[in-house]
Amino acid sequence: FHDRDGFIWMDGKLVPWRDAQVHVLTHGLHYASAVFEGERAYGGAIYKCTEHSARLRKSAELLDFEIPFSVAEIDAAKMATLKANGQTDAYVRPVAWRGSEMMGVSAQHNKIHLAIATWEWPSYFDPATKMKGIRLDIAEFRRPDPATAPSTSKAAGLYMICTISKHKAEKKGYADALMFDWQGRVAECTGANVFFIKDGQVHTPIADCFLDGITRRTVIDLCKKRGFEVVERRIMPEELSSFNECFITGTAAEVTPVSEIGPYRYTPGNMSKTIMDDYTVEVTPKAAAA
Ligand code: PMP
């Protein structure tokens, strides 16, 4: 991914893609003092741009560091990066980390860096293909107790168990893995939140030990606008067999129906389709949609 044309914004200026490098003694690399965002630009506008910048700063605070750029500066830097790369529909990846001045668990005075990369990332599938649904494995690792880790931070360190879980799932032929939480409740996927449908109601786990996704909250609002009742509650694995439909939500996944979770089968139906289509309309800039 490092060997391509284009520009990456780094600590206040745009640098050629291949020159956006860090030293091997970077604290973020050794001790996971790094946080990131995942955003999407649709038709030249980053969807919920400011919310993502604010979440990035919040994620850093939870790891005890402050990003030396304001929300407004981060917003402007993201737009400048898209412009430099000539992109209107793209994935946007800000990342902030502790630098290399001191090597050790404590690195209180290390410089805090911020970089922003953008790349083309079209929605993979047409709606008909998406409606077939993806297959999910059940992950071995659980989301940690909020008393064990800053579980609401989009912290690089929390993705270690996600990568392991996703690799295991892919090796078995699944698209992704469903993770339970430390109490054994259904939690989320490795990079997306999860929703279920039963008897015309939408059910989703309470986001108390994993990322309360920006897409998750958008989808809850879209459901309510449609008059679909949304129940945020504790969902146990024993219930997985009782749902009719399932879908996952995230900036990258958008709204993607699920056809299988381990031994359980779902048939993506009208409610999933309605929510998927409503999300597409929601993220499409209004002028472009007209
Ligand atoms: N959970 C995890 C672990 C994620 O990585 C993501 C993607 N950022 C989400 C949920 C969904 O968050 P969002 O809707 O804000 O992209």
Give a description of the structure.
- By secondary structure, the protein is an alpha+beta fold.
- The protein folds into two domains: 7-120, D-amino Acid Aminotransferase, Chain A, domain 1 (2-Layer Sandwich); 127-286, D-amino Acid Aminotransferase, Chain A, domain 2 (Alpha-Beta Barrel), CATH 3.20.10.10.
- 27% of the residues lie in helices and 30% in strands.
- The chain has eight helices and 16 strands.
- It has helices spanning 27-31, 49-62, 71-84, 127-130, 160-171, 214-225, 270-283, 286-289, and strands spanning 7-10, 13-16, 34-36, 39-42, 45-46, 90-98, 112-120, 134-143, 176-181, 186-189, 193-198, 201-205, 230-233, 245-250, 254-261, 264-265.
- The chain starts with 6 loop residues before the first strand and ends with a helix.
- 4'-deoxy-4'-aminopyridoxal-5'-phosphate is lined by residues 38, 162, 188, 191-193, 210-211, 213-216, 249-251.
- Number of helical segments with 4 or more residues: 8
How far is the first residue's CA from the last residue's CA?
Answer: 36 Å
Distinct small molecules: 4'-deoxy-4'-aminopyridoxal-5'-phosphate
SSE-based structural type? alpha+beta
Shape descriptor = globular
The counted number of beta strands is 16
CATH topology of the largest domain: D-amino Acid Aminotransferase, Chain A, domain 2
CATH homologous superfamily annotation of the largest domain = D-amino Acid Aminotransferase, subunit A, domain 2
- Mind telling me the C-alpha Rg? 19 Å
Task: Give a brief outline of the structure.
The chain has 290 residues and is of the alpha+beta class. The protein has two domains: 7-120, 2-Layer Sandwich (D-amino Acid Aminotransferase, Chain A, domain 1); 127-286, D-amino Acid Aminotransferase, subunit A, domain 2 (D-amino Acid Aminotransferase, Chain A, domain 2), CATH 3.20.10.10.
